[in-house]
Amino acid sequence: MTRLASGGRIDRAQTLRFSFDGTPYTGQAGDTLASALLANGVRLVGRSFKYHRPRGIWGLGAEEPNALVELREGARREPNTRATTAELFEGLAARSQNRWPSLRFDVQAVNGLFGPILSAGFYYKTFMWPASFWEKVYEPLIRRAAGLGRAPEEVDPDAYERMHAHCDVLVIGAGPAGLAAALAAARSGARVILADEDAEPGGRLLADRQEIGGLPAADWAAQVLAELAGFRDVTLLPRTTVFGAFDHGTYGAVQRVADHLATPPEGTPRQRGWTIVARRAVLAAGAVERPIAFAGNDRPGVMSAAAVRGYLNRYAVLPGRRAVVFTAGDDGWRSAADLLAAGAEVTVVEARDAVAPAIAEAARGARQILGARVAGTAGGLGLAGVTLTDGQRLPADLLAVAGGWNPLLNLSGHHGARPRWDDALLAFVPDAAPPGMAVAGAAAGRMTLAACLADGAAAGLRAAEEAGHPGQPLALPRADDEPAGLRALFHVPGRGKAFVDFQHDVTADDIALAAREGFRSVEHAKRYTTLGMATDQGRTSNVTGLAILAAATGRSIAETGTTLFRPPYTPVAIGALAGHQTGRDFRPTRRTPLHGWAAGQGASFVESGAWLRAEWYARPGERGWRDSVDREAQAVRRDVGFCDVSTLGKIEVVGPDAAALLDLVYANDIASLKPGRIRYGVMLREDGFVFDDGTCARFAPDRFLLTTTTANAARVLQHLEYAHQVLRPSLTVALLSVTDAWAQVSLAGPRARTVLGGLLPGVALGNEAFPHMSCAEVVLEGGMPARLYRLSFSGELAYEIGVPPDAAAALADRLLAAGATPYGTEALGVLRIEKGHVGGGELNGQTTAGDLGLGRMLSRRKDFIGRALAQRPALVDPARLVLVGLLAGAVLRGGSHLLAPGAPATTAHDLGHVTSACWSPHLGRMIGLALLAEGRSRIGTRIRVHDPLRGGDTEAEVVEPVFIDREGLRSRG
Amino acid sequence: MRILCPYCGDRDAAEFTTIGSAPPPRPAPDAPMAEWHAFLHLRDNPAGLHAELWQHSQGCRQWLRVMRDTRSHAVAGAEACRS
Lengths: 973, 83
Ligand SMILES: [Zn+2]
Hints:
Chain A is an alpha+beta fold. Chain A has 22 helices and 50 strands.
């Protein structure tokens, strides 16, 4: 055990059991998986991506490139989870990745022996030839060899939520700068959201032994958090990563609500995706320590020196008893001092030739080797020793590396700004940020505690003021500016693999090779080597890689430049973005007012856009859906049936200029329609193609009710609003969707008038009083107000009755009691195909009114949308595909292609396709509607119907596209 | 993205639907076909300020003429088409 006897922020009273690769261990509440593994002396936690090299824990938090594990089991298994951010919980089960058969013995580690073929650009070079091998051999091979974790195959059992929030000031990061910024903004009276990715806010204040105003830094953080929690308008979001800065102050964040629990409690989501709209934002994400590339710098036991301090001070874990600290700056000496204080034996290997006396004094218990460099490491699955460039060998079980700090300025670049290299700081600092965002603290290159506090406080005050909440500057407590001297040291050249990007196994040699092969641009070198393209987005590797590329190409880092940052900052589970909108809840389900009634009558339902519609009503003894549909359709032809048509779009158009607007949007004449009458109408798009069809009922000179197809209801309303507001703003007219305000039933069949008469005793319904295409407002027996339309989709004598939704079931009961047969959408389709009415298959956005036999409806007396462009030569070409009917002896299917009999089945001979097809119980044959080239002249001939997809090939007779009552006598009867 | 609706105030772009470039004025009914062709098909694609039509479809249902900078997404203003 390497747990220290005292200290740390763990709860020693609460012991938690967990397992790693099946071995049981214990840790304490407050541990991460990484700190608990280190406390148990476990250093080897994974195998690397390409070479399967043994890897351990490098970092302390989200920057971790190495220690990726599979967390949990079964449906909750989550691959590529950083052990450094996974909070320990009772029963946690974790597994290592990318090893076979076991972590300690991995047969693919021989990849390391074939290093040269896996170098930069290996995907491009090795697997080039032959091309046919790619899909079958190379890709599966690469995927099996390179794949990290395994995704679960079961459905995610957990729930996710979406949240939306607004604030004056969003503070990203709760380290010293973020806490000071949030406090300054909150005291100014601003609405503040403080988001921090850690379970416990505080950032480096929890990891370092520093003082603020005489208090341990962690205690000061706790004090500030307590004050912030007292503000009504301050929201603290721990375990929350702001992953993207989007337009106009919109930020995306993900809150890990229950990731630290075995399973989310009932009613609690696993994660919550936030959209935060902030007037101002302060980016205080801190900085992350960068590695130095030298041979064997990836061996388990080689760690970030600042992370070592974090394990010592926050988790009371001593990661090694014999430590070498390899540093290029003053910061590494603090790790040496903390290691000494924890009882380790320490050697400092300092790249600089001299350090300030006070710094050396603070680590006086350590052996100090100045002007030296680590050249390599020794050991098997874990570090055993360190070799210096002068050949000196030092036994060691921990090598703490301090290469300097990289500001975490990623979000400042999400709008495309590239950071600027600062030669004094030896770091990239933000040069610009998205509008409304300020960068503060270490993220802005302020590398000491006092500077971070002052910078954060000033940024918070300014942000609040710009958001309309001026306030007073914070009286900051005293804190120290710790020494932060640094020399540039990115790479110690030598023999052996010196890793730059641990997660993608990119070495210093790979970058040099890319430069030699001409990939000198930073963007090209990145893609060629895959540097910085892993899930950590090169958090630890980018700057080191750039420095090596700069050296290899003889340029400065500033001249070499850097790649762009893009959202997301850390990987985000799709579930957190989808929230509850998955499966059945992907979008709202629309049910008609008659849904429950139809279900009670044994209906089955079909999705029609967002709607569920009754497709047929099975009756005892029926052997399948065709029996039901045939019976329902024949009931309408021979007797009477009724169908729920509530889903048709209904739009009320009201006002003195209502007719003028409708004359613009309908291709046929509307102004001449008399009150109390209905007209079938066709709308074109401005490009001349048919947009939608429906009916237009005029209840009064200034009041119309339009129906649209179910599919186009929303689009037609939008189209009308466009025509009014954009094209004819001077018209006085109002538009209102009333689709949900009226339940509507179609009553059709020879006996329809008799059944309707029972609902409207004393009302004259004869052809004189209420002829075909009439409408009226009526009151049904019992006092229910209704709208009555005499119109027919089936070709039979038919009425549509609109009633308030609450009255729909009672109406259906009365129709059923009167002997009418309920029918569903399948029978509705059969009836309309028999009658030759166009539907979805024909209104496909590529047909003109002429194609559909509706050419005579286009008015010659007025302007209307689509009129001019419907005259384009291609739209009036006599060779166009036009609507015809088909009669066949065998099965016809929509989508089948039409060919001249005997012609080869090739695209060049394609004459059109079947748009709708069904069995006609009325005719006792298969019938279809089709779009056929020069179709009018082919009527009476035979055509080949070819369906290569489903394997049909038959012949059909081309007929007029109407199979029943061509004269229209039935509907007028 | 956010759009300042003149009726509803500052709203998320998710509440709006757009048809892209604001079309030029609709030609007279008897205009030559070339003019109709230009009206239907020809649009500028500027790197900079771009006039677009957006409908506040999840709000007041008004069609708005929005001036948006295609390089930065900065919205210079939005006014109702009917005004
Ligand atoms: Zn609005």
